[in-house]
Give the backbone structure.
Amino acid sequence: MVIQHLDDDLRPAICIFYLVLRGLDTIEDDMTIPNETKIPLLQKFDTFLSQPGWTFTGSGPNEKDAHLLVEFNVVISEYLKLKPAFQTTIADITRKMAHGMTEFMTRKVETLKDWDLYCHYVAGLVGIGLSKIFSDSGLESPDVGRREELSNSMGLFLQKTNIIRDYLEDYDQGRIFWPKEGWSLFVSDPSKDLGEFKRPENSQQALNCLNYLINNALNHIPDVIEYMSQLKNQSVFNFCAIPQVMAIATLSACYNNHGVFEGVIKIRKGEAVKLIIQSRSMTNLLAIFDDHLRRMDSRILTNGNKINQETTSIIQTTLKKTIAPRYVRSPFQFSLALFVGLVSTFGIVFFLNKETLLERL
Ligand code: D61
Ligand code: MG
């Protein structure tokens, strides 16, 4: 939906970028393909882009996007029509993502550093590639493409939100993306696994762990705000803002919510529509982040829990760093604005009067 609303110069490139990576991810996610087949397939994936006619029919029966690979020749022929700069970025990001994915086929997400690295491979790189495409199209400044740390954070915030929300779905399919360095702080026996959080007797520890990971994700918000404030083109702004507001709404819905361990927490359709309509300007975007952060903060009980206190402190820092200063004026700024306003009003009145006086004379 957000791709369809992009300006004409970007729509085909971003659409193909999406389909290529979705194809790659469909192979990564397919648990019916053994690693001996999967790893070489992933590692060669970027070379298929220069092989007109290449398709893949080996997906498992439950892969919802299998048809994308069955008709991948169509994606390739559209890819080859893109301008060279776009093709280079797409192939480059595809190759890096595929290598990152294979790295994590043979080892798990253990440390918090691993978590950032895995999310960099599967989502941060998307942010970096998108920003290059925006800049190369001329619709955004070259700086957007250059500031890779900010682009990376855009992806990390989205991917971490997905991983946090999808605890149950992933766990039940034998996938673990919650970093052990994080969750092991909350299980009494280190040989136990992430499945412990589903048991009713561990519900408080499960919530503490959930809140701990949400805190980690919230730390990306200052970069997200800085990235968004560089954007000039309205269609690019909406394209980037919509996933971000969905993510903050999802995190605030998940915060301290045991439902994460029982099913999938989804934001309601009406809420999603409201967010899409409201997120069209920087001022409104800031207001949405501000609103959700304050809502989360108000749900934290001051019961001395370390994780909760940390949330409060992250939220306060985030609000101070990025959000509050932009539209909450200090009393001094307010008096200054009042003073400047009054002086110019009197000045204009005086000037106009002088003009009419002169005319009369
Ligand atoms: C601005 C606007 C959109 C952005 C952005 C900045 C920065 C990053 C991203 C979008 C990517 C965020 C991905 C978050 C959702 N995660 C997934 O889909 C997981 O797969 C990751 C690898 C494939 C990435 C495919 C993708 C997604 C969005 C795009 C894009 C490519 C290209 C252009 C625009 C947007 C996840 O998939 C879950 C599933 O299959 O259900 C997984 O396997 O972990
Ligand atoms: Mg995947």
